[in-house]
Amino acid sequence: MTITERILKYNANRNPDYVKMKYTGMRETIFRFYRGTAHIFNEDIPAKSFIMRSPNCWITGDLHLENLGSYKADNRLAYFDMNDFDECILAPCLIDAARLATSIFVAADIMKITLLEAKKLADIFAYTYADALERGYIRTIEQETAKGIIKELLDKVSLRKQKELLAFRVYYKGDKPKLVINPVYTQKIDKETKEKVANCIHAWAEKREKPEFYKVRDVVHRIAGTGSLGINRFIILVNGTGKKGGRFLLDMKQALPSSLHKRFAAMQPKWENEATRVMEIQKRVESAYPALMNIVEIDGVAYVLKEMQPVEDKIDIVALGANKEDLEYMISDFARLCAWGNLRSGGRQGSAIADELIAFGKNSSEWKKELVAYALNYSKKVKKDYAAYCKAFDAGGVLTTNE
Question: pTM for the full model?
Fold first, then answer.
């Protein structure tokens, strides 16, 4: 099966209109192609590799340079952490580490760094990750001690008011607040879907302290990310305080099975639904989970509901290579966050306990080298896959095959 056929097969059951956007986005850059093909990376890991022999942990299943960012938690404080858990699952911990290390090599040209500089960054990641496991202590990246881009993101989120979000996303038609339709970020939805979403939110809000706060005023389809394009996702404008600057935005995202599920089905707990899996694992791994995170359902389909976080609060790799020292600090922080997430969620429903992870970090002399070598070699495969995909896309073989 060709790379294009594998991609088409994986996305076959998604909304074709938004899948077209995904395919077009994946054509733009090799890194966006990499973002949109986590399932390919996960399928390609050799069954008998050193990666599969690492301790089982709760992992994101799709860790790369742009899947970390800042957000506000339920306590209204700003945090920086891994923030995309669509693919999360109980699996060998080095899967996340290998995917992030590979992303460094894949993004090298976009960050305008040399192969030698990318190799140094991958080494920093592997060695810092192993060291953080060996230390066995769990911390968080705090606003006061963060540096560079991470500090900028934390400061931005900490200071931002809800009315700043609303200013770019809400307009008024008479006295009625409406969500802005921007073809890049939002699309209209039909009346029936809008009513179903509104009824779902109202039913959920009845169990909250101030249900009137969550009265739905408008709903649109949200376009964000790359890998998840094609699934149902909505921005929901709710009443809030009832004032123009007091409206509130929610994000509601459909949850699908992890692309790693078939490989590790035997060791998974029995989740109530896929959204429960995403929410529970995210709560275990992160130091604090996003504000308002809950599970809702429409017609038996489960969604993760939370306060809307702007896409601007994620790392932008185009700007990363400008400051090499800052980039090294950031990669070190990414490695620590990955290790802390493993340790924080350890001992839960089959995941490795801290002692096992500490020992794994201590005995890392070989796997650190193997991790970097694997990442470099796999990045070469990504380049070949991307070239083949671009050829098929330009010839019309990607968009037309799914129609």
Answer: 0.94
